[in-house]
Amino acid sequence: MDLRSVIHRVFQTYDMRGVYPDDLTPEIGYRVGRALAAYLEEAMRVESGHVAIGRDMRHGSDEIAAA
Fold first, then answer.
1. 10, 21, 28, 46: least buried by Cβ within 10 Å?
2. Is the whole model's pTM more than 0.70, yes or no?
3. How many angstroms separate the CA atoms of 66 and 32, rounded?
């Protein structure tokens, strides 16, 4: 998987969009979650908190959210 090309396809201005499992995979979900947590920890200087994650009823949403 070429991560750079996936990023350009998946990340939009205000959200992430892509075809499961071609673009949006559990691995991508995991990596985005880890990156967001690291960013928030550094940028906001917080050790714990809450982030809301949205999903729909499409096939794969549960798997990606769990990752």
1. 46
2. yes
3. 12
